[in-house]
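Shift notes (night). Ran Polymerase/histidinol phosphatase N-terminal domain-containing protein while the centrifuge was going.
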Amino acid sequence: MEDGWRAADLHLHTFYSYDVVPTREVDPLVLYEKARARGMSFVCFTDHDTMKAYDRVGWTREGVVTGVEVKVLDRKRVGHTVHINVYLLSRQQFEEIEKIARVAGDIEMLVEYLKAENLPFTFNHPFWHEPVEKLNAGAVVELADVFPVLEYNLGRIAKLNRMVLELAAAKSKGVVAGTDSQTGDVGRIFTVARGENFREFFEAIKSGDSRLVTEDLTYHRIKNEIRNRLEMLMDNRRWVMGKEGLRMETGNALADAVIETLSGGREDVLAVKREVTKFLARIVSSTGVPARLYLRKQNMLASRIQQELNLAL
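Came back to this:
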């Protein structure tokens, strides 16, 4: 890396996220070392509504930048769930952010707080929604106005990521690239910008003075991701801690039933039933059918967004 330039993957999950299997690959300590080895100047963990990773890796460790992924359902303004990454926050600020997000459910109030506290934040995978929700594309376009930076996400297909780039260009917003990895694949995509510290680095991104190293979600990538997550889930001998409340919703009833059987820990689930489920899950995963269905779902979403917005962002 040339002098003055820094690199960071600003969207990364550890085993403290509710939907991540607790194996060694996603231990914050392992991820920190892996990120540094891959050339990341800043290492940031953005778990869902928790900052426990920093208690494990250290809040002030060299190169560590505090972060969290906040979930907000603003029914009045948006109508579907929005994910926001916040950086450089303290424990106290995190507690206040959670109150606003969970109790008020008001994105404008949250953004006002983040700006007042001078906290960097990004609009994660803008054209995304929870499986049980319907995306309000028009609201996404309007909502982009209040965010300084939008996210290019490895978990999205090329069409959806191109829409984010077009939206950012139309609104004069910065863009970051994040893996959003839940299997330990840190630094697969990342952002490069100048800055002696993280705040300067983020300011450069906001102003558009940055570079993205990107990939998009493809058939082979999602097939491998599904296989990896299933293997992590099925082989609980690899688990480094218990995981009560593990939730890995896919939006597919059959897949979610398999996950519940493998992770629920219910007394009524016999060992033989679990082994049969593992066997069937491996067979189905190897066919690539789940990967094709997932890509089809994203392509259908992209087409619907294009129609709703008349291809004009």
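Residues 141 and 248 are 28 Å apart (CA to CA). The chain has eleven helices and ten strands.
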